[in-house]
Amino acid sequence: MSIFKKIKNFFNPLLSLKVGDLKFWIDKLKSIVNEIKVKSKNLSKTNYDLGLFHFNRGNLNDAILRFRLLKRFEENYSDLDYLLGRCYFEKSRFEKAKQYLEDYVKNDDKFKEEAEYCLNIINDKNGKIQCVPIKIVDHKINQEFRFHLSEFQKCRKSSESATYDELKKILNDAEKVFNFNVLDLGCHTGLLTYLLRKNKLINFALGVDLNESAVKHCESLSIGKNKVYNTVIKKDIISFLSSKSKTDSKFDIILGVDLISYSTEIESILSKLKSYLNEQGIFLLTFRCNNTQKDNYIFDGKSEQFIYNSVFINKLAKKCGWIIAKEEFSEVKKHEYSQATLILKINHEHTS
Question: Looking at the DSSP assignment, which residues form a beta bridge with residue 239?
Answer without folding.
Answer: none
